[in-house]
Specification:
By secondary structure, this protein is mainly alpha-helical. Helix content is about 65%, strand content about 5%. It has one domain.
């Protein structure tokens, strides 16, 4: 695989969203339709900044009540079109120090994740939540289901913000892009596991928040969806086929993150709630085997905890 393709994989694996719209389609949800026009003279409270701000307050409370996920500080949310989001990310990238080797990478990432497909995204560097109005509107429409859809997206992204604030586990894309630029791709497997944990936590916590608020959650993808995912078509052009193959690989990697991560976090939170998730994040890195089988992680955690207790007892006795 070329360095360019591996960088594309890295940037795709790093993207944190509640399911980009293309992945939602791959997971069996309704394909995007043309965005419904806003009725003339009829105020649309859902797709307004004030409406989004109110939804953030409600989702924040539901995450605390339903999942035990409590933000340390409020997270600003902005309602943007895909074009506006891309422009904002490019403007942010332009403020980064020259020579850091990351500006081009951020612009590439912005092009990739805001290309008319991303529903929403929490940006750890900006500490801001983006909601992409035209993409959400195309998938969710205007009715009551649209509010549920947007609520679930916001709850997912707020969980990412929580994990950034509380656990500080988001990989540094600056360092990763620079290392990969030097040909070091050894961290990709571990990165995939960490991002699976983050996406799984956001997915499951969002579902719990939706239950608490009486909201219909987003449909969770399955391993069958991973196998059947074919988001991009390459046509007859060899270059297009190559790019489509790389894009579909990224799509499957993201779907695997949601599927495996959700199941691991469901079992972890059933076992010990958010307090146990804190234990999980303190036990990073996880192996791929532990991610796939929560019981394997629980055995390691119990052994490490037993060793800690023995050390504490020895210290007390001495």
């Amino acid at each position: 695989m070329s360095s360019a393709c591996r960088c594309l994989l890295l940037l795709g694996v790093l993207a944190c969203g509640p399911g980009d719209a293309a992945l939602s389609h791959a997971a069996g949800q309704a394909p995007p339709a043309a965005a419904a026009p806003r009725p003339a003279g009829s105020p649309d409270q859902l797709y307004t900044q004030a409406g989004l701000d109110a939804l953030v307050v409600q989702a924040t409370a539901a995450l605390a009540d339903g999942a035990g996920v409590r933000l340390r500080q409020p997270v600003p949310a902005v309602l943007l079109t895909a074009e506006q989001a891309l422009a904002r990310r490019k403007a942010f990238a332009a403020t980064l120090p020259e020579g850091s080797g990351v500006t081009a990478g951020f612009e590439f990432l912005a092009d990739f994740v805001f290309s008319q497909s991303m529903l929403g995204r929490y940006l750890p560097d900006e500490k801001v939540l983006y909601v992409i109005e035209d993409v959400v509107r195309a998938h969710a429409g205007e009715g009551p289901r649209a509010r549920d859809y947007l609520f679930a997206i916001v709850a997912h992204e707020l969980t990412h913000a929580h994990d950034d604030q509380v656990y500080g586990v988001f990989p540094d894309p600056v360092q990763l892009v620079e290392r990969m630029g030097d040909g070091d791709f050894s961290e990709l497997p571990s990165l995939q596991v960490t991002m699976s944990l983050l996406e799984g936590h956001a997915t499951w916590a969002s579902e719990l928040a939706c239950r608490s608020a009486g909201v219909t959650p987003l449909e969770a993808p399955t391993l069958d969806d991973v196998r059947d995912a074919g988001v991009f078509e390459g046509g007859d052009n060899p270059l297009g086929q190559g790019l489509a193959a790389a894009g579909n690989t990224v799509a499957r990697l993201k779907l695997v993150q949601y599927v495996q991560g959700r199941e691991f976090c469901r079992r972890a939170m059933d076992f010990g709630g958010e307090a146990f998730m804190a234990q999980v994040f303190r036990s990073l890195p996880l192996t791929a085997g532990e991610l796939a089988d929560f019981s394997r992680f629980k055995v390691r955690w119990a052994e490490e905890r037993e060793a800690d207790l023995e050390q504490e007892a020895d210290g007390t006795g001495g």
